[in-house]
Design the sequence.
DNA sequence: CCCCGTCATCGAAGCGCTTCGACTGGCCGC
DNA sequence: GCGGCCAGTCGAAGCGCTTCGATGACGGGG
């Protein structure tokens, strides 16, 4: 492996000149630049990341913490991940992958060892122990999600409250007035993931504002859970004509159950789902859905991390507006 | 951030002693070790990764290259990823995530910059351009999948040929003699992913060996693709009584199509699928399946990389034996 | 009693890069 | 015609760690 001094020798200049050609931090004449670049190409020189990190205290690496076992669907996580990696590359950064199960120790390890310049943390919970830990690090961090108290740490996420409201007004626009929310499994609420409760309170508020008759129920996973949830809804809200489904796992069994009990979607029952595009289109009925903009969220998280890194101030928090995509699961009230 | 010399001063020893306590490469008396460790704990010292990499030419980081857009299902990829990250941590390594779309350049970048000690590459194709590139790196690498010519690079994967044979003998054991293979979409074959052709040739061979009547067809994605594929199969192999499905996306539409055309699974038609556990159990019928051992493959890939790193010789290639899990989609021939 | 081998520890030389201060010509303005 | 300035370049001092050879103390064998 050639070093910077090999390049310098080959180009007939000093090490520092090569360094300045590479970083552009000082003016170097066009001819010299050309010679240096030629030498670099010829030798196949790559600056040594460790040496660079040592000398400059910058690693060009971002840490990304992903959840291992989750209630939020795996494809969505993967979308976040690829968005983050792709966005990081546009800033010439790479991504070190950590898992949530390492908890606070993982953060401290990579930050303490100066392996990364900044951290992006997914799946933060209401009262996440990692938040105070992040605050103690010398590297900046960005949360994907909203804890109760972000303690000054930057956050990005879909505006779930506004999304719930959008779903309701979309259905209200079709004439529906009796609407039920099929929520995530109780485990999600208990775990303290705030998107569930943010969605729920947005739902409740908008329902009151729009004068709708609504009920909301969490939904256990599996066909039995769906059946139980539907039964409860029918009992509490007879003549319900539309469902808002904030539970990806429930979608398929739900459609199965409705079909086998003879309720047609959308003729008898309209549905709006909160899920990524491909889930909405991959089911037996193409669902009208509020999109989960995983790609945008990931990209914005990286943008925020980069602003933080070069000292620019960033809005502490970004809530992305919802987008509803009309497909085949909403009809006017029967 | 405290440095090793802060620790040394606090413990009243030299820097090198601290280093030897940390690495264990030379004997240090118990008392000295205790003092050093106390100082480390008290100061909250973490060795600087860059400095360490510079001095030792070891980074304790593995690169993992994942495909971005794929025909193999996202949850499977994610299983590989989490297995690799988890296994890497047991060796005190971290994982740098690269995407396949960076191609050869990504590999050369991280290897050239000495950001990683070894590379693990997923989704390798028949004649992958990355293979010669990997050969040129000074870091060892492990492929997940089997190219036509691995050029001496280590490989791990499920033994797809043996898997096909297992599926057939499982069905033959239930008395089936007329069996069709619903293969991946033609795009997969064209892209040159070898697992498809390995499976197909295993299928053909075992079919001959067992004296079965079989046909094999690729299957375009979507409901129409499934319908077309079934039609072809029925035309070429009337009275087909079992299907081997090597196409995760086709599974749901396939079951839909069979149901709506009145063919019951497994009474009228038995099915063995090749897919991960959760897919097999998440469908309307719990499918008997040959498991895709993503977790094991990921773990073994890391083990192989580590052996390569400390100079131990490893088998150049590991093919994992298939496991068939009996569920509700296989019945004796009607 | 001396020599030698062992064990535990130290000192210093890098590893490859960035960065800061200093140096050199040329060119301007007065 | 001289001081000052700027563009362009160089030299050297680290950055924090590992590692190798050297050193000192100590005990055992001759």
Sequence:
């Amino acid at each position: 492996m050639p070093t910077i001094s090999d390049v310098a020798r080959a180009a007939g200049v000093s090490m520092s000149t090569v360094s300045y050609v590479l970083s552009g931090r000082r003016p170097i004449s066009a001819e010299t630049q050309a010679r240096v670049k030629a030498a670099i190409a010829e030798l196949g020189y790559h600056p040594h990341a460790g040496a660079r990190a040592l000398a400059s205290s910058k690693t060009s690496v971002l840490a990304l913490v992903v959840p291992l076992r989750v209630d939020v669907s795996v494809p969505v996580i993967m979308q976040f991940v690829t968005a983050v990696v792709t966005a990081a590359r546009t800033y010439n950064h790479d991504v070190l992958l950590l898992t949530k199960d390492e908890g606070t120790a993982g953060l401290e390890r990579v930050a303490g060892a100066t392996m990364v310049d900044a951290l992006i943390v997914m799946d933060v919970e209401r009262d996440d122990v990692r938040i105070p830990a992040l605050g103690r690090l010398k590297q900046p961090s960005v949360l994907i999600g909203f804890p109760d108290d972000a303690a000054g740490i930057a956050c990005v996420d879909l505006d779930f409250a506004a999304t719930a409201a959008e779903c309701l007004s979309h259905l209200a626009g079709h004439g529906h007035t009796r609407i039920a929310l099929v929520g995530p499994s109780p485990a999600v609420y208990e775990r303290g993931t705030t998107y569930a409760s943010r969605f729920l309170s947005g739902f409740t508020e908008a329902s009151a504002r729009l004068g709708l008759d609504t009920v909301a129920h969490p939904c256990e996973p599996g066909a039995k859970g769906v059946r139980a949830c539907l039964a409860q809804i029918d009992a509490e809200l007879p003549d319900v004509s539309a469902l808002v489904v904030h539970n990806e796992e429930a979608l398929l069994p739900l459609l199965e159950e409705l079909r086998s009990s003879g309720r047609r979607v959308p003729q008898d029952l309209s549905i709006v789902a909160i899920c990524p595009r491909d889930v909405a289109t991959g089911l037996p009925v193409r669902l009208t859905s509020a999109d989960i903009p995983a790609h945008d969220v990931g990209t914005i998280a990286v943008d925020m991390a980069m602003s933080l890194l070069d000292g620019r101030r960033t809005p502490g928090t970004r809530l992305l507006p919802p987008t509803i995509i009309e497909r085949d699961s909403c009809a006017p009230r029967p």
Summary: Residues 13-17, 20, 26-29, 32, 51, 53-57 of chain A lie near DNA strand D (CB under 10 Å from a C1'). The CA atoms of residues 126 and 192 of chain A lie 5 Å apart. The first helix of chain A runs from residue 4 to 11.
